[in-house]
């Protein structure tokens, strides 16, 4: 048994009353399990808040964890302890404990420092457990830490859109509020002066204040403070601007911008295409320039360089207005233009001239995404407008990811129609169930929802300063749990796992592989040694449109003791793990399971304690007892090869046509050859074992006289048909040893490819 295993009974939304856990006793070199203890505690009775100091850590950087304590137990605490357990998925990677005493109703703070492993791009769950002096558990809470050298691998993008005159303390407070949600980059929205002249003043002496497009006053010192505090919190600061906008009078204001660079709605350049703005704004409309025009490209890129010289922004968040179907567009000379290809051209030019700056582009309602995917941008940012359901969004995400290989951020504005009923001065509240369900689905599919910014506000409109709706305290708390969860499990959610079509059954519960009404949406992925099941609960929900424009979506109908039957592809299964942001702060629990097979294949069946919005089940196979079974070392480490004396070796290891991973072993010679490799595993306990291997055998001439898997002298012949097939052999060990090998005797031109060789104890 590895680490802590919990078995808990769920008795309500606010109280976790009965639980059983394995307590860890630490020796100088390792953790060992000591005893099973029954405990009862009230959630929130001691730990008021648990947080890390930064939303992202560079490899090698230490993590500071702060536990704010309030003793609400009803009695004094003397020599109590807070123990932190640091976990990467199901694996324990460290622990630390501190002792404290606290009177009834008193408050205190404990600070911990942890040095995580130096591995780049890893998420960690940090569990805090409070015990009294007798070892009884009083409380627990979680937070998370992301160790990543770049924010664009696992983006958690936020925004700032208000730059009023304020104290540096107020600016710092805003940044810290967002840091607690692990926001690792900020879009500075409408911070600039004019779209075609974003910097007011000069590079050496920017203006103290200026008006933005809406004629709001922007204060330079607030902008500088925000950038500085963002950087001190390892947040990237992105300068927003259109890629093709210009104000009224751009051709006469001395900026140097030219009408010949524009986009026109007619062939004789009499009407420049533009976007009208409300009365009282700084310009009557935004006049659009041709993004493919190299003179415009170099002009606006140079204006962005001025921005970067004056302010320490980390990159350019590039925006567009979107496409208006049915309206043809022309350049100054009357030639039809393709905006999308022009976008890519400008973005590539910008990156080539500013290679050290992050470049992000908004593909409004997916317009231009295919060209952007192939452009030199650092992640995909796609503003979604249609009434899509979650599986529609996942379909688009999968397509976009296959084209770009980059992370995706989706701005979509919740309760969009409902917000019209309110004003900033008298706001309404977001519909909590709709937001939690949308974020659960978007995080689960492997993307991020851009939504949080300013003074911990949430977006309800494409004009970011709009604050007609605010979050309730309940939504803030539950959303924090989701963001903690998304960081802790980022390697399962957004680290390149591949979609699978493995069958999932929920006996007695309506489910679907699409996000259908009144069903549980399930989908599966695999990679990095895991098979993953995502379960999104839409039971009791008839309208599956994600944005819930009218703020009427109910909470899904919660389920308890959900039976899951899963047909696995990478077995035999060794461990079934369950976690949910809705259950006990997102901790991982090992679930007991039964294994079997039927007409649909091999399966495991288990029960998850609860499904509210979102559950993850991640499954690991039994450990492979062979060394280098996938030949990922690039050589025959662990294996011994044989070929006849006088014949050249007929094997190699390469990365072509692998079954899984990066490498495979192959046998090949155009001439007649014999070749084998073997691995002998000793010191095995008695019992039943299974050998599994994936092979692809192809004869380009005569069939080989022998092509087989060899296990302790028993043979399993290969099918020589050019198809990857899995071969298995069962063996009973009584002498403590298994000999696993592959042998071919070929008249020539026989190709044998071998990958994913495993030996597991049954």
From TrEMBL:
Pfam families in the record: CBM_4_9, Glyco_hydro_66
Keyword Signal annotated: yes
Residues annotated as domain CBM-cenC: 624-749
Superkingdom assignment: Bacteria
Signal peptide: 1-31
InterPro entries named in the record: CenC_carb-bd, Galactose-bd-like_sf, GH, Glyco_hydro_66, Glyco_hydro_b, Ig-like_fold
Keyword Nucleotide-binding: no
Keywords: Hydrolase, Signal
GO molecular function, one term: hydrolase activity, acting on glycosyl bonds
Protein name according to UniProt: Carbohydrate-binding protein
Family statement: Belongs to the glycosyl hydrolase 66 family.
């Amino acid at each position: 048994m590895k680490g802590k295993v919990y078995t808990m009974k769920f008795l309500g939304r606010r109280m976790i009353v009965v639980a059983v856990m394995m307590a860890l006793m630490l020796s100088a070199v390792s953790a060992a399990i000591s005893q099973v203890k029954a405990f009862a505690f009230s959630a929130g009775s001691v730990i008021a808040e648990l947080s890390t100091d930064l939303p992202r850590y560079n490899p090698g950087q230490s993590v500071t964890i702060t536990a704010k304590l309030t003793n609400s137990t009803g009695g004094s605490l003397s020599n109590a302890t807070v123990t932190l357990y640091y976990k990467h998925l199901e694996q324990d990677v460290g622990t630390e404990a501190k002792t404290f005493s606290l009177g009834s109703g008193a408050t205190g703070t404990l600070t911990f420092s942890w040095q995580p492993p130096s591995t780049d791009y890893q998420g960690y769950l940090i569990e805090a457990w409070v015990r009294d002096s007798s070892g009884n558990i009083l409380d627990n809470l979680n937070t998370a830490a992301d160790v990543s050298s770049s924010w664009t691998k696992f983006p958690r993008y936020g925004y700032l859109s208000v730059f009023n005159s304020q104290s540096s303390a107020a600016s710092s407070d805003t940044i810290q509020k967002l840091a607690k949600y692990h926001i690792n980059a900020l879009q500075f929205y409408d911070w600039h002066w004019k779209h075609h002249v974003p910097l007011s003043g000069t590079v050496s002496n920017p203006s103290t204040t200026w008006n933005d497009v809406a004629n709001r006053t922007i204060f330079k010192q607030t902008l500088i403070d925000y950038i500085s505090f963002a950087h001190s919190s390892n947040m990237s600061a992105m300068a927003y601007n259109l890629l093709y906008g210009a104000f009224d009078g751009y051709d006469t204001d001395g900026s140097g911008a030219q009408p010949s660079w524009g986009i026109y709605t007619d062939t004789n350049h009499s009407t420049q295409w533009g976007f009208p703005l409300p009365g009282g704004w700084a310009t009557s409309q935004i006049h659009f320039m041709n993004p493919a025009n190299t003179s415009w490209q170099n002009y606006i890129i140079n204006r962005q360089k001025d921005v970067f010289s004056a302010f320490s922004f980390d990159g350019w968040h590039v925006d567009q207005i979107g496409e208006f179907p049915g309206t043809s567009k022309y350049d100054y000379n009357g030639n039809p233009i393709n905006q999308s290809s022009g976008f890519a051209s400008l973005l590539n030019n910008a990156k080539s001239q500013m290679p050290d700056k992050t470049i992000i582009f908004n593909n409004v309602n997916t317009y231009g995404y295919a060209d952007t995917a192939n452009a030199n941008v650092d992640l995909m940012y796609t503003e979604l407008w249609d009434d899509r359901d979650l599986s529609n969004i996942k379909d688009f995400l999968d397509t976009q990811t296959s084209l770009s290989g980059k992370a995706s951020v989706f701005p979509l504005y919740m309760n969009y129609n409902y917000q019209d009923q309110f004003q900033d001065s008298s706001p309404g509240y977001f519909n909590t169930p709709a937001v939690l369900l949308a974020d659960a689905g978007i995080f689960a599919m492997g993307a991020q929802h851009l939504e949080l910014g300013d003074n911990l506000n949430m977006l309800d409109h494409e004009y970011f300063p709009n604050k007609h709706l605010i979050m309730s305290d309940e939504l803030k708390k539950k959303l924090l749990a989701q963001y903690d969860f998304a960081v802790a499990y980022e390697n399962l959610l957004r680290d390149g796992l591949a979609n699978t079509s493995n069958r999932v059954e929920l006996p007695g519960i309506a489910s679907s592989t699409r996000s259908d009404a009144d069903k549980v949406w399930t989908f599966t992925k695999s990679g990095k040694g895991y098979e993953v099941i995502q379960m999104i609960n839409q039971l009791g929900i008839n309208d599956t449109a994600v944005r819930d424009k009218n703020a009427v979506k109910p909470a899904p109908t919660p389920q308890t003791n959900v039976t899951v039957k899963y047909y696995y592809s990478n077995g035999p299964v060794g461990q079934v793990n369950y976690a949910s942001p809705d259950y006990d702060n997102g901790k991982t629990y090992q679930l007991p399971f039964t294994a079997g097979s039927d007409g649909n294949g091999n399966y495991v069946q288990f029960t998850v304690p609860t499904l509210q919005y979102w559950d993850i089940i991640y499954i690991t196979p039994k450990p492979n007892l062979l060394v280098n079974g996938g030949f990922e070392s690039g050589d025959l480490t662990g294996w011994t090869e044989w070929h006849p004396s006088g014949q050249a070796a007929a094997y190699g290891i390469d990365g072509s046509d692998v079954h899984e991973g990066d490498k495979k072993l192959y046998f090949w010679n155009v001439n007649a050859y014999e070749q084998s490799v073997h691995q002998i595993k000793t010191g095995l306990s008695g019992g039943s074992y299974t050998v599994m291997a994936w092979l692809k055998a192809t004869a380009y001439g005569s069939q080989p006289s022998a092509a087989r898997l060899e296990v302790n002298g028993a043979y399993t012949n290969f099918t020589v048909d050019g198809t990857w097939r899995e071969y298995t052999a069962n063996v009973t060990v009584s002498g403590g040893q298994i000999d696993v090998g592959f042998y071919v005797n070929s008249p020539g031109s026989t190709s044998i490819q071998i990958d994913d060789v495993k030996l597991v104890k049954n």
